[in-house]
Amino acid sequence: MKVTFPHMGNVWIIIKTLFEMLNVEVIVPPLTSKKTLDLGTKISPESACLPFKINLGNYIEAAQEGADTIAITGGIGPCRFGYYGELQRQILKDAGYSYEAVILEPPDGSIPGLLKRIRYLAGNHNSWGRIMKTIYFAYQKSVAIDRVEDLIHAARPRLENKPATELLYQKALASLVSVTSYRGLEEVVRSVQQEIAERQAVQNYQSGSGSDPLRIGIVGEIYTILDPFSSADIEKQLGFLGAEVDRSIYLSGWVGKHVFQGLAKGYRSMKSYPRLAKPYLGHFVGGHGQETVGSAVKFAQKGYDGIIQILPLTCMPEIVAAGILPRIQEACNIPVMTLTVDEHTGNAGIQTRLEAFVDLLERSNCLRKKVPKELVSLERMC
Amino acid sequence: MKIGFPRALYYFDYYPFWAGFFYNLDIELVTSEPTHRGIMESGLKMAHDETCLPVKLLAGHINSLKDVDYIFLPRMVSVEEKTYLCPKFLGIPESVSAAVDGDIPVITVTINWREGQNQVLKALEAFGLKLGKGKAMIRNAFQEALKWQTMYGELRRSGEDFEESLDLCEKSFTILPRETSLKLAKTNQYKVCENREPRPGIALVGHAYLVNERYANLDLVNKLRANVDLKLIEETETKAVENSLKGLRKKMFWSQAKKILGAGYSYVDDETVDGVIYLSCFGCGMDSVSQDMLARRARKAHKPYMVITLDEHSGEAGLVTRIEAFVDMIVRRIENESNLSAYGKCLDNN
Ligand code: SF4
Fold this sequence. Notes:
- With 382 residues, chain A is α/β, with parallel strands linked by helices.
- Chain A has helices at 11-21, 34-43, 50-64, 81-94, 111-122, 128-158, 162-178, 182-207, 222-226, 234-240, 251-258, 272-277, 289-301, 316-332, 347-363, 378-381; strands spanning 3-4, 69-73, 100-104, 214-220, 243-247, 306-312, 336-341.
- In chain A, helix 14 links the parallel strand 6 and strand 7 (336-341).
- The chains are: A alpha/beta (382), B alpha/beta (350).
- Chains A and B meet through helix 4 and helix 14 of A and helix 4, helix 5 and helix 14 of B.
- Residues 52, 54-55, 86, 88, 207, 256, 281, 284-287 of chain B line the site of iron/sulfur cluster (SF4).
């Protein structure tokens, strides 16, 4: 058995770790590219969403490298993602790829059924204790990734040497891939922190401390906000335009919610979102629609300068949220922009819209509340 | 007190329930007019660009409701165990009324059958109390509402069309005694199919608010009825629908898709059905799953299959041509059945 899985931003680092530490052969699909998307689009239903198409492409490319089993999470609705695993299995089969799909969910609510599936993937050579320990370590790794990402979000608009920042980020991710101890995780995060602090010190010494960057909150459908390919690397682009970004969902939050059923809360908890959303959307709507609304309120309350929602074309929960965001824009007096993405979205198009949005925020800058100047603020440490 | 009920979306599946409920609460329910150009246009203008046609139409209908005290927009989360309705149904009260933004207050109640009938009743009690009605009255109204809905279902299965069924259902509880209306329904049914040449059998599947929305679908049902023996989901036995879903590896979690797929699969296996048409609409997220699944099944069984995707620009001429081509293909196929096989011919996608 050679297991593969769909890409979603940095999630591959976690899943690779998980399977490798359990001695299960895993094939990481080639990083998502234009070609991946083309391959996926060709055999997807036309009105499926962008993540669906990308993932089908991932499976095809992984099959070319010998993968025969897909591990994917499931769901019981109402978001259609819950049915994707099964539909994709059918599509791949009809297209001539003989994949087995293991959907990690309790079938008809049965926990033993879920355990059986995990056992199937992990093989008989792993004890449950070892499986649980490994899952927990993988989770901690996702927290480390989130912390690194967050530091980079802060560094991008502030450090002048942009390529050096990207290099730092890539290097940190590369070391995280192979780390197998908790101490190792801590060290990577520390070293990123330190390097940023040093560079900023030098920069401040040479040219004085710059002004505070704009702050933009990114909300929306989880896949597209976690996966840079599907959103034309919006976080990096905004960083280069001088804005500091934060987003509504972090990888570990997702792992905590889906794998630990909310018992582990992740690097940045999403718990407050439903409560914050309540005055605008009093019920969950599947996917992360209510979280989108709630996090938009949170960003507004925290004095962010603007909010960007990413919506994969035809995504039902996010369309509901998109219908409500104008109310928040009005009530909280914060500019909101919705970016719809699909397989035809070009990077250039997104870039122009981001530039225009940042421009707009800069012009209304005088109303802005002050943000703390030091880079590694307390909030980031906890 | 007058409550406005938009003639869109859940109207086409669940109006009898709500009509029965409010009738027995002694509350006047006013529906918006059948869709016309003005309603459609205002809906297109007001609703969120990316949303689907049925939700856009809903926005138009909400906007067209005048002279009522409240607009009623239920939040229909689930209508049976272990399923949901489309995510958009879950957010209707907030997201669509945000788009329309009129002066008439919106009232809502959450219907969630996942947690059982008692929870539904509880929610309705709280809702009814706010409207100033007593508990006993509300309980009775709920029981009656279920009867209305059942009666509507029976009428549809007996072959009565959508509008007739609604009408008869309402009358049978308000004017005529129940028996009379059922008999009426039966006689009507037999009148239709006497002395006819055998015609091709075609099944039309899709969301009730597309199939029964005569304006938006350019009267597709009657256009088809003029040429073929038409089968609709509502006329198909629930048993057949459920049975044909048994083979699914993963249970379908949307009620709408369950009906469409269950009926669709049964048509694919049904020898009296010569072809299947899936009526979909632009921007429907659910159909991207269920349409694709049905298309695969039809292709494997070599059943002629066609998708019609409605959008705000759907034109009469294009639709007629496509139907004609499909029906012609099927007729030819039937004629050639024994010798020349046309198997595998499929007109999926536009
Ligand atoms: S099921 Fe499709 S058509 Fe119906 S409301 Fe949802 S997205 Fe719209």
